[in-house]
Specification:
InterPro entries: DUF3100. Pfam families: DUF3100. The protein is an all-alpha fold. The protein has one domain (about 1-255, about 265-430). It has helices spanning about 1-5, 5-25, 35-45, 55-80, 85-90, 90-115, 120-125, 135-140, 150-180, 185-190, 195-210, 215-250, 255-260, 270-285, 290-310, 315-335, 345-355, 365-370, 375-390, 395-400, 405-430, and strands spanning about 25-30, 30-35. A two-stranded antiparallel ribbon has the order 1-2. Strand 1 and strand 2 form a beta hairpin. Helix 3 packs parallel to helix 19 (about 375-390), helix 10 packs antiparallel against helix 11 and helix 16 packs across helix 18. The protein starts with a helix and ends with a helix.
């Protein structure tokens, strides 16, 4: 049983949730610090390799647990989409166009920075997207993981894992507090295809506009789903080709010239992370339904505790809601295991089920919505980033081997994708008359 085998991880996660929620939301000027960020940072300190508190196996397990705990949040977000489906349908063009904002943001902000820092063709892999798993796969397939483009995409992947959520949360909070953008546009900007970064950005936006919590999470969830579904094709057929053309036009260098100069070489960082990803994939595939259900229940308990400590919600008020969210997540896991449906990720099925059961015209939707509303969005985020923080230590050695150049580039890429998508959404929502 996972509780017995990994009791240290779960105990630390519990402690992190309690400590983070006790500290609560802190506002300093334009900057907002949320409990989920304390959990992430403190978890990273606990998992720091030099402290020898957790071993590499335990850190890897914490990372795998994060993907299951994330389903709880995805279901919560989906339950907010159903009641607001009419509003989202009226914003359909904005949801599509914000994807262009995500792409042009990484290109406009990230690529000039990378070229200025003389990164070489690593700039292509680093700047054509925010570089999560699907984007790494595209570069690995087209150029190879040991190519300069492969080094760039893996560098961005590591940076996103280590501090992507932290940075995007701070940035979203600052921009939200300026009052320059409508909360719906900010929410769309946060739906960048990474569940952890979306959760972090939405948490900051919700902290500024608490009265719009349900609609913010609905817009962010819809935008994130849109990015996840069409983002792969957008990256493959638009983002990557355009980034390559712009890079070669600005630098005047073709790939074959750089290859001839000996820029393609084996990379230990890429090798290490690729191996870890393969191991993580094997663990996920071997995971039993019982383990998944246990982790979902544990996530529900941690959310109940976080909701009580941080938001003073009586556990009796959101207990049934947590059970419903767990049931939705488990149903999604079961569907994803059906032969022929495995090509679509679990998060897709969980989100779709949550949306359907919360549409007002569906029988029982009102009851489900009423029961799950007391489950606070921010309380559901903290356990996820607690496990995420406990997994960070395994990536720190690889991060140390990266060139320092990837850090400012990663910050600019993340900033660009959020700012430009928000700007595009703001314009389109005004044109559509939604805001």
């Amino acid at each position: 049983m996972d509780l017995v085998k990994n009791w240290r991880i779960h105990l630390f996660a519990l402690i992190l949730v309690i400590v983070a929620e006790t500290i609560g939301i802190q506002k300093h000027g334009l900057v907002i610090f949320l409990p989920m960020l304390y959990a992430l940072v403190l978890g990273g300190i606990i998992s720091y390799p030099s402290f020898h508190i957790l071993n590499e196996k335990q850190m890897t397990r914490a990372g795998n647990l994060m993907s299951i705990t994330m389903l709880f949040l995805i279901a919560k977000i989906g339950l907010g989409i159903g009641p607001n489906l009419h509003l989202l349908l009226n914003s359909g063009i904005a949801l599509i166009m914000q994807e262009f904002g995500h792409f042009f943001g990484t290109l406009i902000f990230g690529l000039p920075t990378a070229i200025l820092l003389k990164m070489g063709r690593e700039a292509i892999g680093a700047c054509y997207s925010i570089d999560r798993e699907a984007n790494v796969a595209i570069i690995a397939e087209k150029f190879g993981i040991f190519s300069p483009e492969g080094r760039g995409v893996m560098g961005m992947y590591i940076c996103g894992t280590l501090f992507g959520a932290l940075w995007i949360s701070i940035l979203a909070g600052i921009i939200a507090r300026t009052g320059l953008f409508h909360p719906y546009a900010l929410a769309m900007g946060g739906g960048i295809g990474s569940a952890s970064m979306m959760a972090a950005s939405v948490g900051s936006i919700v902290a500024v506009f608490p009265e719009e919590t349900e609609k913010i999470t609905a817009f962010a969830g819809a935008a994130n789903l849109m990015t996840s579904v069409i983002g792969i094709y957008f990256s493959l057929f638009i983002s990557l080709p355009v980034t390559i053309k712009v890079y070669e036009w600005v630098t005047g260098r073709k790939r074959h010239e750089e290859v001839a100069a000996g820029e393609v070489q084996e990379n230990a960082v890429a090798d290490t992370i690729a191996k870890e990803e393969e191991e993580a994939k094997e663990v996920r595939e071997k995971s039993s339904l019982g383990d998944d259900l246990f982790i979902l229940c544990l996530t529900g308990v941690l959310t109940l505790i976080g909701n009580f400590v941080g938001f003073k919600v009586n556990p009796a008020d959101d207990f049934i809601g947590c059970l419903m969210i767990i049931a939705i997540c488990f149903a999604g896991i079961l569907i994803a295991r059906i032969p022929g449906l495995k090509k679509l990720p679990v998060v897709f099925w969980v989100s779709i089920i949550a949306v359907i059961v919360s549409i007002p015209s569906v029988p029982g939707a009102t009851t489900i919505t009423a029961a799950t509303n007391p489950v606070n969005f921010l309380a559901a985020c903290t356990p996820i980033l607690a496990y995420g923080g406990l997994s960070l230590g395994k990536d720190i050695p690889a991060f140390k081997r990266l060139s320092w150049r990837i850090v400012p580039v990663a910050l600019m890429v993340a900033s660009g994708t959020f700012i430009c998508a928000t700007l595009m959404a703001e314009v389109m929502l005004h044109l559509e008359g939604v805001i």
